[in-house]
Amino acid sequence: MASEWFHPIVDTESEPFWTAAREGKLLIKRCRSCSKTYYYPRHFCPACWSGETEWVSASQLGTIYSCSAVHQNPAQPFNDLCPYGVVLVELEEGPRMMVNWDFDVPLELMQCGMPVEIAFRSVSETLALPIARPRS
Question: Is residue 132 within 8 Å of 99, Cβ to Cβ?
């Protein structure tokens, strides 16, 4: 995977997530008011809108809720990556997160209901992206 294909915007809300990702750790947010865990990183709880939120370590384990193999994508630079997989993973903690399927695992193995783990692939010295792969 080319390092220049994706660069998320790292801001004050998401910086702890990306720092942990570089270390191979998955952080999600939890609301101190209603105890809901959620992903994608943002300050306000999407359930009760409280600003009393905190970062917590996730198990990095989940199940594929939905998946798709992308065989054509006209947008640069994604067309150079085809075919690739996109999965919606339901984490054991409850939130769902959309990530790429591990480029080193055949697409034919990707299926709904499959137990997976979230790992991280370094794409540059400063960026690691979450990916899903079968549990080892």
Answer: yes
